Amino acid sequence: MTEIANRAKALIFMTARDCEMYVRQSLASLSRQTHDDLHVLFVDDCSEDDTGIIAAALLNDLFLNRHTFIRNDARWGKSRNVWEHLRPRTNMAEFIVILDGDDQVIIPTIIEQMSRCYADGQDVVWTNFITDGGGIGGNGALDPNLSPRRQGWKTSHLFSFRASLLDNVPEGYLRDSAGQWYMAACDIALALPILDQTRRYEFIPVNAHRYTATNPYSHHNLDPQSRGLNSTAQQRSAQEVFNKPPLPLTRPAKNATAARVLAPASVESRPLATAVGAGQAWQETASEILIAGYPTLLDAQSVAGRDPLTPMQIWALRRATFQRSETPNILHIGAPRSALVLASLISGLEAGLNCLCISPEQVADIEARFIASGQTDRISIIETEPTNVSFENVSAIFPDTRPIGEDVKFDLVVVDLKNTAYPAESALLALPALANNLSPRGFNLCVFAEDRAIEELAAKRWASVSTGLKFCLDAIGGSGLMVVGGR
After folding, report:
1. Are 360 and 338 in contact (CB under 8 A)?
2. Do 247 and 256 contact (CB within 8 A), yes or no?
3. How far apart are CA 189 and CA 475, in angstroms?
4. pLDDT digits (tens, 9 = 90+) for 320-329
5. CA distances in angstroms from 378 to 5, 142, 327, 336, listed in the order given
6. Per the record, which residues fall in region Disordered (predicted)?
7. Half-sphere exposure in the Cβ direction for 357 (13 Å, CA)
8. Could you report the per-residue pLDDT of 149-206, keeping only the tens digit for each?
C-alpha cells in the first residue's frame, strides 16, 4: 500500500479489477479536473492483468502526494472495499466521489461544481451519464418529500456524498441476507443508506460520466440473461437492497434546498388547500416535480393530441412503470398520449416500450408523434390486425397479440382507449386477451376506457373469474382501472 495522508475537499474512490484497457483513460480524465483539491483512493481488487501496475505509475505521475494506492491479495468486491478501505478514511475529505477504474469523467469542471453544492449545504450530489455506445442514462432528481427507496434507481453515476454520512452506515447494509458482502449492485448498496439519512441533495442535469458498458468483465456482459445493464445477480441484489429498512432521516430538506432541486420556490410556500382546491394544488406540485425529473415530458405533452394526461395521471403511471423493475418491459395499446408519456418516463434507460397498432394509419400517426417529440430510442411499433375477441357474453375487436409471441412477458401494460376508434366494449377484453403476456413475477395493467361504467364493469367481471389479482378503480390519478398481479 502506498499512502500519502493529507486532507482534501474531495476524496475520489476508485476500484478496479482487470481493466488494463481502460484505467489509463480513467485516471487521465480525472487529472483534467479543474478542481485540484482532491485525493485519489485507488484499490486494485486483485487484478490478474496489469491494471495495478499501470495505475500505480499513473498515480505517481498525475497525482503526486495526492493519492493512496492499495492492492488486495484476494478479490473483495466494491462493498467490502468500501467498508475496509473507504470508511476508515472518511476524515480525509469533505465529500467522496465514486469513479470506477474503467469509466471516465467527461466534464472537466464537474467536481468543482459539486464542491460548490457542498459549500451551499448539500449532502449528496450526482449527475447523469452516457455509455461508451452513446446511450444516455436515466438519472434524475429525487423528490425530498418521499423516501429514496420508493423512487427507483436514479443516482448512479457520477455519485458523490458528504463523507461523514458513511460513518453512520452499518456493516450489514453492505452484506446480503446470508451475511456475504454484496458482489453485485454494490453502487445501490452504498447509495441508499447514504440517501436515507438526508434530503439535502442535488441532481446536476448534465452527462458528466462515461460508463464503459462494453467492458467484457462487467456483470451484464458475463450474464446472457442480463436485462440491459443489469445482470440477474444485480437485479436480485438490488431488490434485496431496496427492501432493507431505511436508516433514520437526520437531515431533512431545507425549504430552499427542496425548491432548488425540484421546482420553483412557490411549491414550498403554497398551501395545499388553496382557493383553487387541494386537487389543483396536487396537480401543480406533481407537474413541477415531474418536469424536473423528466424534461422530455413537455415535448411529449405538446404532441399528445386530445385530452392529454394530467400530472397526477402521469405520476400514477410513473409509479406503475417502475414498481416491478427498474428496466421494465412495457406494452401499450391505444391513444398515443399515454405512449408518449411512457417513452418520457423510460428515456435513457434500458427499458423497452412496445406499441401495438391495428392499422397502417395508427402506425404512421404514433410514429410521427414520437419523432415530433424527439423520442425514438428503445421504442418498438408493432403493426397487427384487429381480431374479434370474446369474453363471457361480450365480443368486440382487439389487437391480435400473436405477433408478440407468448414467450414475451410485460411488467406493465397500458390500454388507453380514450378518444380512439375502438368500441367501448373493447376495454372489457384487455385482461383476457393479454393474460398470456403478463409477467408471472407480477405486473400492472392500466386501463383507460371510454367511460367509468365500462371500467367498473371490467373490474367486476374480471374479479369473478380470476384469483390473486387486485382491482383499483380511479387509481390512475383519479381515473382508470388498475389491475395488480403479484405483491
Report:
1. no
2. no
3. 32
4. 998 888 889 9
5. 47, 24, 11, 16
6. 224-249
7. 18
8. 988 889 999 999 999 999 999 999 999 999 999 998 999 999 999 999 999 999 999 9
pLDDT for the residue 358: 92
The x, y and z cell numbers of residue 161, run together, are 456524498
CATH class of 2-242: alpha beta
Q: At what angle do helices 278-293 and 255-262 cross, to 10 degrees?
A: 70
277: burial class by Cβ within 10 Å (0-12, 13-18, 19+)?
A: exposed
Q: pLDDT for 456-481, tens place per residue?
A: 999 999 999 888 899 999 999 999 99
Region 270-485: CATH code: 3.40.50.150
Helix residue ranges per DSSP H, 120-185:
none
How many CB atoms are located within 10 Å of the residue 147 CB?
Answer: 14
Alpha-carbon gap, residue 7 to 38, rounded angstroms: 8
Instruction: List the domain boundaries for the chain.
Output: 2-242, 270-485
> pLDDT grade, residue 348 (50/70/90)?
confident
| 352-357 sheet: strands from edge to edge | 379-383, 352-357, 329-334, 412-416, 443-448, 481-485, 469-473
Quick one: which of 27, 5, 3 has its CA closest to 93? 5
